[in-house]
Design a protein that fits this description.
454 residues, mainly alpha
Length: 454
């Protein structure tokens, strides 16, 4: 099969392995960090799992907005790098850091000053709020650090230095795992802090991760080493030019994350067991979804480099290969999740018999939707954003979430009162709709454009 065979696609696979694998490994490590937290917290029971899941909805919302910001900015990083216009990279970094720090500061204020009020918006369960609020207040201090780490991490990928954030994530995972064991359960004479211990471990791991990334940037990557004077020299026209393309991505990710938080609101009001089941299912799926995110981010970088260099036909050709790989990987992952979920869940989490059953069924329903999610990741993050077709991708994604997914969630969860796995399955119709509605835009090649100023 020459279309995807290595012999006829050596350039594609060389670039893919150098870009996608470090990104996928870093995302896998980040997801593993969440898995470690949840497995260890899971030994404390369903209430602790659900409480941490609710508390992390705010972090999830922030990271999705940051993801949108830096994805939009990375379009220009990739295209300037492909065009060998290195002088403009610092200007782009100033825009990324400015927006990222403002966003993370706002979320820090909410998490630190209003944790109870935020959690009350999602759930009326006082036990969940009592456990989740202290956790949220502690991890809030990691928000600004996360914004900085994300900004440089995304930008290094765009210029082919994806191993730096991967290295930082490996060390962060190891530290978080060790500190979790010490602080959650009180090993080796440490105090038994439970959920608060997990929050402290996460905060320390994020601090070290940020330090490693900054050290690597300012010692070895001068193109991105912004200084205070760069912020004062930044031109309004640069902000306007970048935001014209990046703003729809920011709005897209922000309202998409808000849609996911709305789903969490529905699940939380269905019950603690239901919230715990969906939290575990989403976390397990995120471990495998790193493959899709690795491909999606690699597509954005590789297509963006080609478009920036004016190689439009090569960008279109690469895109066809990415879409084919996403389908193959999505089906493969779906089979794994469907097959292994009955064996993994009872061994990892402390749930009731009903909780095990609900979680396994939810995982199997989500496995069916996996190929569609993989395909949509490539289309939205890779294909459309690489060429700046961000308005269309925003309309596509938000219309499916808010016009299809959210109404279905409320109808199935509150009116029909269906089991959690049925609700998750019906919500997944929005992924199928997104795949069908996005296909004509991809085939039109209207996304394949060069954006950068020379």
């Amino acid at each position: 099969m020459s279309f995807l065979g290595y012999k006829d696609n050596r350039e594609f696979y060389t670039l893919l392995f150098n870009t996608a694998i470090p990104i996928a490994v870093q995302n896998a490590i980040s997801s593993s960090l969440n898995l470690v937290d949840n497995v260890m917290i899971g030994q404390l029971g369903a209430t602790s799992i659900a409480a941490v899941g609710l508390a992390n909805q705010l972090f999830f919302l922030m990271t999705l907005i940051l993801f949108g910001t830096y994805s939009g900015v990375s379009i220009f990083i990739s295209q300037y790098w492909g065009n060998k216009n290195y002088d403009r990279l610092r200007d782009v970094m100033v825009v990324a850091l400015t927006i990222g720090l403002i966003v993370s500061a706002l979320f820090f204020i909410i998490a630190f000053a209003l944790p109870v009020q935020f959690l009350t918006l999602i759930s009326g369960d006082t036990d969940l709020i009592a456990v989740g609020a202290p956790y949220l207040r502690i991890v809030s201090f990691s928000y600004l650090l996360t914004a900085v780490s994300f900004a440089f991490g995304f930008s290094t990928r765009g210029i082919g230095h994806a191993k730096l954030p991967m290295k930082a994530s490996v060390i962060s995972l190891l530290i978080n795992t060790g500190l979790n064991a010490l602080l959650i359960f009180g090993l080796f004479g440490f105090p038994v802090l439970g959920v608060r211990g997990a929050a402290i471990a996460t905060l320390i791991a994020r601090i070290i991760e940020c330090i490693i990334i900054l050290n690597g940037i300012y010692r070895g990557i001068p193109y991105l080493s912004v200084t205070l004077s760069d912020f004062f020299k930044a031109k309004r026209s640069t902000f306007q030019h970048i935001l014209k393309t990046a703003l729809p991505v920011i709005v897209n990710e922000g309202f998409w994350a808000l849609g996911m938080t709305t789903y969490a609101y529905v699940y939380a009001h269905m019950g603690t067991m239901e919230m715990a089941s969906i939290q575990i299912s989403n976390m397990i799926n995120s471990l495998f979804f790193v493959i899709s995110m690795g491909l999606g981010n690699a597509a954005m970088v590789m297509l963006g480099n080609k478009l920036g260099a004016g190689e439009i036909d090569d960008a279109i050709r690469f895109n066809h290969k990415f879409l084919a790989l996403s389908a193959i990987c999505g089906i493969f992952v779906a089979i794994i999740v469907f097959t292994l979920s009955p064996f993994a869940i009872p061994r990892l989490f402390n749930l009731t018999a009903a909780g095990y059953t609900a979680t396994i069924k939810t995982l199997r329903v989500l496995a069916f939707l996996t190929p569609f999610r993989f395909y949509n990741t490539i289309v939205v993050i890779g294909t459309l954003r690489s060429g700046g077709d961000t308005v269309y991708s925003m309309i596509l994604e938000l219309s499916c979430v808010w016009l299809i997914g959210v109404p279905i969630a409320f109808f199935c969860g509150f009116y029909l009162k269906l089991p959690v796995y049925y609700v998750a399955g019906f919500i997944g119709v929005e992924e199928i709709a997104k795949a069908l509605l996005g296909l004509p835009r991809v085939k039109s090649n209207k996304w394949a454009k060069r954006l950068i100023q020379t």
